[in-house]
Amino acid sequence: MSIHPLKCPECNDYKKLVIKWVRYEKQVDKELDINIPFFFFFSCGHQKPLYKKEHYDLMTEKDFEEMEDGEKLFIEFGYEDKEFNRYSHLNFIYSSEDYYLIPGLFRDENDGYLTPVFFDKDILLYYNNHPDYSVRFGSFSSGNIYYKGKPLFNWGFGINRNGKIYKWLGDLNEDFEDASMQSHLKRFQASNVESDHDIYSKFYLMQNPFSTSDAFQTSDNESRLFTLKNEIDELFFSKHGFKLTKVQVEDFFDFYKPPILEEKEQIFNAYISLNKFVIENVQINLLKEKINEIRQDSDLKKLGSLKTLERFLSSFHKAENISQIMSPLYVLSDLRQLQGHFSDSSFDERYNFCKQRLELLEDSTYFQVYEKLVKELINCFDQIKKLII
Predict the structure, then answer these.
(1) Rounded distance, CA 187 to CA 284, Å?
(2) For labeling, which of 26, 67, 71, 348 is most exposed (least CB within 10 Å)?
(3) pTM of the full predicted structure?
(4) Is the separation of the CB atoms in 211 and 1 below 8 Å?
């Protein structure tokens, strides 16, 4: 398989579709307006039209030759505002340009099926707070809604870089086909929003793979973090006769509600839960007993979970850079302590120090901080796992 066509060969970022209005003019007062599709790369700022400039220049020259003096025209390509009639009963708004222009979506044999339909992320709040439903994220850019532990949708949804969720138009047709799903259809209709032409996500890559790595995506969120935690528990048991944590979370979605929106209280509550599962859950007494077997340490009694774990890994697994490896865990502990102190005068200073250690700018959003922390925790756990092996 080849490199994904949305991927920039220079910065490795993924481009998004941007429709730009361009006006061609002639001195004889002829005027042509045209919406030209561009692909824009966030990281390097590079933009590239769907076809080379010469293509559009040649096309407009031919039109200018046929126009009358003073005439004004708007050129269309035929894919703008097309409606896929077999899905009209769903009453969703979408952009047919996405379907025809974004790589991997167009299908001759199934016209319109892979048209992305966008929704406000607020819709997930209803399901995440309902006792019979839950929202589970396989990554920061893919997920599904569950009803009493079973998936509500066959293929779930994607989350783009603007925080909008989206599903394929054809999937929506199948998801809402049954009469029992009509209440859900109305809920999604109410949350339907205009396309922003960006569908980059793990969801998109997995369903439209151009390489093996596209098809088999590794989770980048709490799901991966808790998987690593459980793997470290098993390694600890095989090496030292006990598990690192008191509770092994088989299905953390039953206990942990991830934040949905860019909302301060919601995100800091998530820090409390994360801290409980990955720091407070550490079997500190067993770690201290094991350390005392090889050396008596007078300071050991005073140490908390993280410092005890740090000393244990240094003693038993020769971890020379363990303070650097465990830095994200200390950031999590500090963020957990900030919850409930939002009004304190020192909050901004302490919060910005957490951002600094995560190598983030001070104007980073609450959710950006949360996402970066989780990814750094995954890296931390991955390195601890390698140390134990």
Answers:
(1) 47
(2) 348
(3) 0.88
(4) yes
